Predict the 3D structure of the following.
Amino acid sequence: METTTVKSNFKSEEYFINMGPQHPATHGVLRLVLTIDGEIIKKVDPDLGYIHRSIEKMCERDSYQQIVHLTDRMDYLSSNINNEAVCLAVENALELEVPDRVKVIRTIIGELTRISSHCLWWGVMGMDVGALTTYFYGFRDREMINDIMEETCGARLTMNYNVPGGLMFDIHPNFVPRVKKFITHFKTKIPEFDRLLTNNVIFQKRTRGVGILSKEDAISFGASGPVGRASGYSCDVRKYHPYSALDRVTFNEALQTEGDTFARYKVRIQEFWESLSIIEQLIDNIPEGEHRVATKAVIKLPKGEYFQKVETARGELGVYVISTGTKNPYRFKFRSPGFSNLSLLNHIAVGGKIGDLVATMATLDLVIPDIDR
Amino acid sequence: MKYGLSIITTIHDWLYSVMPEWLAGLVEMILIALVYLGIFSIAGLFLVLMERRVAAWFQLRIGPNRVGFQGLLQTMADALKLLSKELTGTEKADKFLYNLAPYFVIITSLMALAVIPFSAEFHAFDINIGVFFLIAVSSIGVIGILLGGWSSNNKYALIGAMRSGVQTISYELSVGLSLLTMILLTGTLQLSEIIEVQKSGWLIVQGHIPAVIAFMIFMIAGTAETNRAPFDMVEAESELGAGFHTEYSGMKFAYFFLAEFINMFIIAAIAATVFFGGWLSPFGITESIPSLGVLWFLIKTLLLVFLMMWFRWTFPRLRVDQLLTLEWKYLLPINLVNIVIMALLVWGKLIIKF
């Protein structure tokens, strides 16, 4: 960026400002130490650790069934997908083939979770750029998914629905009709989202050309999920390493090339449509069968190292397990999408205004417990 | 001072009959001030409730409807709560300026309220420089915001205050110039005479195209002047927490809060007076009952207030540099051209009069 320096007798100096740990725009307890010159951001220094709960260490203490419950508390907005990741890793290690019914239900629930997470993100995105009304519209539709989840899993946020070997319970008889009702409802609501926020001139002015991330940088920072895809980096785990029933559906990977805040926004709006189409393809063809295969009460993974990655609403979640053959893992490591996505904040926010930083951070869609674990 | 309501005349006569002239004048002034304070607080409380209900309506909610009929006493309860709160402040605040700031804000909006013509009779302070006085007084309010932000010794508050200074100074030009466009039509700055002129058609009709442009500019600049969304850079809760009043609590915070709503009312009232005939009824349907003027004035003002609330609950916030671009690169040049067009219309007698 070219800047013209005006010679002046006034002396200005940079100053520090703490954004967070309690700040409306950090959506949790993230602390950003900003170096600011007037309104212009010179440096963003994320300071983590305010919500660190040693989840990885706790995993080493717990049995594999217990670990699943801990993952709910990481990225709580895609808790079902986190559960699925651990279950898949354990099932792969045990070479356990789960029934088709489980695979399909897992995929449907996962996509519903993605939609609900993106609904919340959309509401909060609007709020961060100053349009408070979007929050309630996002929550209206998220509420329908929460009700479906509550009926089937018994919980609205931390589902604990997946267990190694299948699902905790079978789906509720109302599940299929309610999901279908949601699909027809939500198809009329996405255009409403567009009318309210996407097509707004002020919103586009605020987001276009702000926080640009190039494809090369996206790859080198390890960006994944919508953040990476907005920069043209095709990285959808669902496409490249399909798990559960994702290999039997057709969907397009939401890709944009601009890499700015608006592109990241567009990718997530596109993902609404893709997730809806995945659910639509599967909801009528849920095979009959068992919802769970029996596992031993104490699961012992064979000695070795296992890795499983899934696509959460925020990007690629990796689960890396080292087992020594006992009932507890020797090491349980999560590769969380939020951590890598946060690491590039300094790179893309420098040079912008405070308002730009907030808009950029909103499209990174950070969930702090996912970063801190 | 000018008043025609019989009860006011009675009080006026009685006061002057029982006490010396200087004392009667003083007592009368204090009485009027008290009446306006009452209007001020009632209008403030009502507008807060209105905003909350309108916001709820936009946001698929119901809003406050439990305290009193349809929540009418909700804001009263909130005000009582704020009164009972402790007044905390930062240790290193500049105490004198810190305590002074809310009064600057509230007194200027009270002063501006005094010149608003509620009806032909209900008009406390009808001076021949009415419009000029309004613009001048409403621009003092920013000093309160600057003081509050500066003295609370908080970086967020300081950024908010500096943004406010930049914003108000810029947008005052547009407020002034768009009103000036209309003054070309009326030839007077006195608010009561501006309304007299509109007996042959509201100014927005008289001045047709340039008047509509002036109205749009006035509403944009007026929203910016009151620091409301989409121009609420001063508070910008997702960026600065609470902006310039981050460090204020209890009733001092309530003063800032009330002043914002009264300022919104004042901007809407000026627009209703200058563009939509103030207390005049449409097509003179209730001209025979002059006391209905208050009703018409309030209907017009509240419709414009609703318009400003509509802005707030629909639009995202602009960025601070975009805000300045909008003013200096778009609104101001359009405004200057608009004045020339209006002058040509008046000179060529192309205005519409019934």
Q: What stands out?
A: The longest helix of chain B spans residues 21-58. Chain B is about 70% helix and 0% strand. The two ends of chain B are 31 Å apart (CA to CA).
